[in-house]
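A reminder from the course coordinator: this example appears on the midterm review sheet, so study it carefully.

Given structure:
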């Protein structure tokens, strides 16, 4: 599931008023009679699912839906219990007939039949060689031993290769958006690019303005514009906007309380696996540079029902710096202020309060701090 779903992420539903019927039909010689196919998608945060057995190399799901939702089908791995999905594909569930056709597997199926899925196939076809490289890198990481996945040099090398693939994807994605200004996939792609590379925000803003009014007026279109505006106000070189949130003891803490030091605003959550995996690298940077004018302000996406888990994670991971949260999850006010839509994320602010870097991790975090503080700067 991780491989397929990471290709396009941060996907939001499209709101509409009336329910309409949908059909999802899959066929191909690679689908064996007796295979069990699972369908999963969410509506308003609630997981919906169904399953069916392949007969004559074919399966069909039918139902009703409001607008469109992002989902996936997988074969023979129960998504509710399986550690990973070996054969799965993502697509949009929307009114009409979605067709999945493949000679060998779901993963390699061609998706067609509805406007959003036709556009998704067009973009994925253009990105296919780069997606294959992405999948290989993902598999390479999964194949590492646990201790290797905690090694900063190994992780940094893999991330550099991921970044290279994403950078090569960008001109392909911008070309698709330019040619498809009325496509919901263009909107989703802009959001994905913004999440992956905050430095692209000016170009993303320009591309967004060229989309059709119908796309921009969708619920997600409006949300994306607000995020773009927030990101533009918190770009590198901009003075960081102050905010106040309670710490673990309920004491109000201001970002401006840290003026005079380099401060890394670290957005994370106790339930976020990638965040917890990143914490050892953040901790290493903190120990190395905390006596040279550097500190960290942790901002959590936890909620009231996970507050105990948040406090436990702070202790278990050895995060001795200041931690704050308004306990509003991904609606955290500081995250909204800075256009943060994915965690882990971070923003580095200099002693004057100016933003000097965003989303620096592993060796990049260390090298950036070494360049800024290696001479022994102290407040």
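Designed residues:
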């Amino acid at each position: 599931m991780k491989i397929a779903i990471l290709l396009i992420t941060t996907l939001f539903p499209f709101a509409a008023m009336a329910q309409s019927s949908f059909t999802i039909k899959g066929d191909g010689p690679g689908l064996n009679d007796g295979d069990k196919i699972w369908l999963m998608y969410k509506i308003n945060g609630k997981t919906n699912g169904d399953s069916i057995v392949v007969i004559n190399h074919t399966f069909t799901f039918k139902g009703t839906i409001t607008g469109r939702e992002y989902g996936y089908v997988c074969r023979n791995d129960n998504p509710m219990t399986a550690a990973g999905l070996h054969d799965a594909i993502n697509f949009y569930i929307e009114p009409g007939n979605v067709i999945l056709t493949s000679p060998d597997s779901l993963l390699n199926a061609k998706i067609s039949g509805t406007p959003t899925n036709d556009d998704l196939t067009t973009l994925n076809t253009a990105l296919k060689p780069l997606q294959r490289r992405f999948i290989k890198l993902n598999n390479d990481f999964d194949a590492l031993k646990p201790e290797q996945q905690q090694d900063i040099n190994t992780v940094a090398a893999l991330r550099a290769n991921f970044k290279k693939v994403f950078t090569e994807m960008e001109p392909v994605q911008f070309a698709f958006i330019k040619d498809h200004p009325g496509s919901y996939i263009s909107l989703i792609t802009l959001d994905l690019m913004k999440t992956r590379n905050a430095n692209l925000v000016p170009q993303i803003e320009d591309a967004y303005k060229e989309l059709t009014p119908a796309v921009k007026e969708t619920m997600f279109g409006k949300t994306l514009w607000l995020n773009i505006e927030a990101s533009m106000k918190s770009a590198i070189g901009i003075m960081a906007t102050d905010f106040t949130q309670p710490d673990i003891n309920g004491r109000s803490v201001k970002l401006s309380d840290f003026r005079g030091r380099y401060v890394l605003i670290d957005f994370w959550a106790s339930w976020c696996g990638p965040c917890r995996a990143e914490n050892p690298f953040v901790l290493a940077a903190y120990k190395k540079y905390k006596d040279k004018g550097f500190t960290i302000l942790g901002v959590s996406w936890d909620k009231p029902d996970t507050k105990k888990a948040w406090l436990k994670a702070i202790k278990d991971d050895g995060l001795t710096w200041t931690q704050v949260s308004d306990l509003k999850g991904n609606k955290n006010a500081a995250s909204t202020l800075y256009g943060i839509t994915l965690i882990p994320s971070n923003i580095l602010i200099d002693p004057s309060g100016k933003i000097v870097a965003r989303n620096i991790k592993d060796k990049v975090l260390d090298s950036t701090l070494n360049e800024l503080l290696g001479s022994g700067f102290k407040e």
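Confidence is low (pLDDT under 50) at residues 1-17. The longest strand covers residues 58-75.
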